[in-house]
Amino acid sequence: MGSVFISREQFAKLGVTPAQTTKTLTLANTEYSVALPTGTKRVIFGLRSGSYSFRYGWATGETNFTVPAGAFRDVSDIHLDDTTTTTIYFICPDVAGEVMEIEYWN
Q1: I want to staple 85 with a disulfide (CB 3.0 to 4.6 A). Which of 16, 35, 77, 102 is the partner?
Q2: How far is it, in rounded angstroms, from Cα 2 to Cα 65?
Q3: How confident is the model at residue 1 (pLDDT cuts 50, 70, 90)?
């Protein structure tokens, strides 16, 4: 199966704006948060190195979902409320200094 490429012009036609950010998980087994902007419709995230698993969740202390090493998570059709931000929480339990890459559309 081939890869999919969507140009910025096509994103504009779809009415979504892509954006990217990163978050360094400085300490192992420590929870870090990233606020997603209002109106976010899709978010994809994973560790840059792909060498370790990580956990995530939608509330502090609730990072119960595990993403295996080398994988990423794609959460589509979320349509976050246009009046509030939503925070996502990450933990890399095995190593310090990993970088979480986050791409989102709003």
Answers
A1: 35
A2: 29
A3: very low
**Alpha-carbon gap, residue 82 to 95, rounded angstroms:** 36
What number of CA atoms fall less than 13 Å from residue 105's CA on the CB side?
18
Return mean pLDDT, the chain.
Answer: 86
Q: By C-alpha distance, which of 50, 51, 41 is closest to 72?
A: 50
Closest by Cα among 82, 105, 83, 33 to 62: 33
- Determine how many CB atoms are found less than 10 A away from the CB of residue 7: 8
Residue 9's DSSP bridge partners are: none
The pLDDT score that the predictor gives to residue 102 is 96
Q: In degrees to the nearest 10, what's the CA dihedral of 84, 77, 100, 61? A: 60
